[in-house]
Fold AraC family transcriptional regulator.
Amino acid sequence: MAETASAFQPNGRYQKFEVFNQLIGDANLLRAGDFGESISAAHWRRKADVLTRYTDPDHHTISLYVNGGTGIQRKIGADPMSGGGPGRCCLMPAYLTSDWLVHGEVELFHVYIPHAAWERAVVEAFDIEPNAVEVPEKTFFLDPLIEQTVRQAMLPLDWDVPADRMAMSNAGQLLMGHMLRSYSTRRDLGFKVRGGLSPVIKRRVFDFVDANLDQPLTIEELAEVADLSAYHFARMFRKTVGEAPHQFVLRRRIERAMHMLRDGSAPVAEIALETGFSSQAHLTTRFSRFTGLTPAKYRSISQ
């Protein structure tokens, strides 16, 4: 049975995915969520001795073995493929049925990318028809970028809070771009190059962020304001501003909290909610990392 997770959306898009639905029967779901229109993720712990079949999934899956997994084999013909273990990755393309012999314990992290989102990314990256670019299956391989992104930029985050959900969306976009650049069948093609954001669009995005700091902003929402795709927006924003969109939004949240602490008397818990943090404790952690001071200490020396 799956256990209730700290981050769990009852009507999440991820619940429609084949890989997710095959695991939910005998694995513990630690947490799961959708992050914008292109990225979903799930964190699993599993102990089983079963044959698992993923039948014709309509999504791509990036899988990282966080812990365990040495007893898992990819069943292909008469000789199953071994090689699972901590740090190993698997790419499971859409519309490829695969069988897995599962023995023992494993902790898994999955990123799910709907095929429609992948096709949009192909057009945006290469300016060619999506059906000209495929993702081959890869099993039990090492990829430092995937492992570091998951372990350092996704697993530590609180998926329930606006400040971290945007960082999840950004990390997922990074991994999708990595798939295109490193593993697609047309990685020989150069990515389309664009410049930065115009001053008018930059101001429009800045104003939208400032007006919605209490909301769970996503890369897709900011891209829509800029009238760009999420893929191109993230690259153009970084080129113009010098930091990733989620880093910019976090900085704006902290700066808004600093202003409220200096110029008002609202409780810190209220300031946390108005700046997109889930609690006073969450604001305190991020504020201290950013300024070197707790909110209370900052208020005491700035008023």
Q: What stands out?
A: Confidence is low (pLDDT under 50) at residues 1-6.
